[in-house]
User: Fold Probable multidrug resistance protein NorM from Thermosyntropha lipolytica DSM 11003.
Amino acid sequence: MYMIIGVIDVAIVGRLGAAPLAAVGLGAEIFFSLVLLFEALSVGSSVLVAQAKGAGNYRRIASLTLHTLVIGLVIGIIVGAAGLINAEKIVSFFNVEEDVHKAALSYLLITFKITPFAITLYMMHAVFRGMGRTDIPMRIALIVNAFNAAADYVLVYGKLGFPALGVAGAAWATSLAHILGLVLAFYFLYQNRKELFRSEELKKIPLRPQVFRDILSLGSPSLLEQFFWAASNLLSIFLLVYAGTLAYASHQLAITVESISFMPGFGIAIAASVLVGQSIGAKDFKMAKSYARGTLEFALIIMGFFALLFALFPFKIAGLFTHDPDIINLAGTLIRIASLEQLTIASSMVFGGILRGSGNTRTPMLISTFFTWGFRLPLIYLFIRVLKLPITYVWMAFVADWALRTIVYLSIILRRDWLNKALDKEKNS
Assistant:
């Protein structure tokens, strides 16, 4: 959902120029990096719920849901408060130009206030997916993004009697959209309570330290993976802004366009995790293999389509987001380079989902951390800060990064280590 929100924000703010586009890009990267960092704990909830669903343990599902909500709310309050207190220091760290700094700060001071809503919402999405109700997050996303698009248009440009708020308007639209999303999540949870929990009631479920430990233990590797991703993401921004406002704005536009292809790939990876997890919970290991193969093939078809689209029409796509010819030319080149990595991104996403669904959240964390910190970041530093090469070289490094990750994942999947460990765990239980 957050990817679509980012696409809409960039599409609307991008028409205001390079500085507002860079500011929204920076503000959104910081906010969502922190939100998604702690939302990663929900991987533990999703896997445990999927396995409980496969085993038909509805009391366990209800208990996991309640404990996930508590975790999301508590962490959201802490992160939001810390963000508001340190917003000025966070933006200053990136050493951007003054107009970008001011606009990005206004974005963060607004969005940090709704951090508890955002983290809790995304954690609830993971619970719904673990239950097999992927339609609920999708319905919420459709409503929320329609609202965000309308609110962006009204608040950024100043329509229907509202003042033109620019970047701040995008921040308010994003914030209100997340509040609406959480309200809808609770509504769907209540409306579907009999199907999801059968006779169990959340209010009668006691809070138990062991359940918190179960969720946090399984989610911690994903949290660590997300931490290294978030830190590397913010550090890469710190390095990329040295290329200048035009280069960073073009990079942000290209990243936003590429996130459109991420959405189906990410969704299929989640489906792989849930379906494999449910199959293992039901002790149907043959079906787990079948789901693994099917989700990979589907992801390759979908993201292969985007690869063709990005290769054939990169400049026309960039022109949908801005009228600035310089941004269109550079962003279009980056989008064309992005076409080269779509199939490897699809493969890496699904392979990671398969491993997480089998209960192995550690391996994806190690792969992601190694390639991000040992390969991607050093090359960004080398190309931008040392050699002062164009940003196109950085994007070629991204292509190589995803290709190498896919090779490593493929070697693990083909050895069937993920399935063998699940079988061993079942034999020893």
